[in-house]
Amino acid sequence: MSEAAKPGDNEPALLEALADGVLRLVLNRPTARNALSVGLMTALSDALHRAAVDKACRIVVIAGAGPAFCAGHDLRELRADPSREAYERTFAQCSRLMLQIMQLPRPVIAEVHGIATAAGCQLVATCDLAVAAEDARFATPGVNIGLFCSTPMVALTRAVGRKAAMEMLLTGELVDAATAKMLGLVNRVVPRAELSAATMGLAQQIAAKSALTLAIGKEAFYAQAELGLADAYRYAADAMTRNMLARDAAEGIDAFLAKRPPVWRDA
Fold it and tell me: How would residue 74 be classed by pLDDT, with cut points 50, 70 and 90?
C-alpha cells in the first residue's frame, strides 16, 4: 500500500501504447509507487473497455513506471473521506476492475518489477499471466496496518494454494520472485534488464494466435474453474464445439494437415 503522489504531479495516470497487436498499459504514478487511486483505476478500466472492441489489440500488457509495479490502494486518498460510502465505492470499483480483466476477451500479462503489494499483488494474481523481474517482491501486508487484505485475497487464493495464501495474508511478509514462481503467482522470472523484452516476446507469441480462439479459451478457462467436474466437462465440450464451428478452427486444422502457416481471420 502506498501514500498518494505529491501535489502538482500533472503526468497522466496511465500511459498507453499499441504496437504489433500488443497494447502496453503503464501505471504512471511513480512517486506513489503506482498506487491504485480512483483516477488510475478509472483510466485503466477505460483503456480495457477500448481494448475489448479494438481489433488492432490482440493482447494487453500491464506494467508500472518508476521503482515499483504497484503498491496497492492509495492510503492517503482512502483516509481523505473516511465514510462507509467512500470505502464501499473504492473497493467496489477495484473489484469491478479485477473482474473486467478476467472477462476481457484479450489475454492480459502483468510485467512486474519492484514491489507488487496488497491490491498490486491482487492485480498480478488477476492477470492471466505474469512475468517478473528477479528483484520483484510480492505481499499482502494489510494485516500490518490493521486492514486485512480481503479483496486481494480473492484473486490470491485463486492463483496459489490455500496454505501459501494464508501465510502471505496472515504475516504480510514479502515473497521474492523465485518463491512467487514456485507458488504459481507468476509464470516466469527473468533478470531485470530483460524484463520488458521477455514480456513482449511472450505477448507477441500469443498475439500471433487467432484472437477468436484466445477469447473462447480465456472465457472457458475461468468459467469451468468455478464449476463442479461434470459441469465443467459439459461446459468445455460445448466450448470446443463452438470453437470447431469457427472458420479459424477449420483454417488451423487444414493448415496443419497441409503443413503450411495458418491465416487467421479471427472469425
Answer: very high
Longest dimension (CA), the chain: 65
Whole-Å CA distances, 31 to 69, 76, 85, 111: 12, 13, 27, 19
What is the pairing mode between strands 175-176 and 188-190? Answer: unpaired
pTM given for the model: 0.95
The three cell numbers locating residue 249: 478452427
Cell readout for 30 is 511513480
Q: How many Cβ atoms from other residues are within 10 Å of residue 22's Cβ?
A: 21
Cβ-proximal residues to 229 (8 Å cutoff; 6+ apart), any chain:
none
Give the pairing of strands 115-117 and 175-176. unpaired
Q: Quickly list H helices, the chain.
A: 38-53, 75-80, 84-103, 119-126, 150-159, 162-171, 177-183, 195-207, 211-225, 229-244, 247-258
Task: Dump pLDDT digits (tens) for 86-138.
Answer: 999 999 999 999 999 999 999 999 999 999 999 999 999 999 999 999 999 99
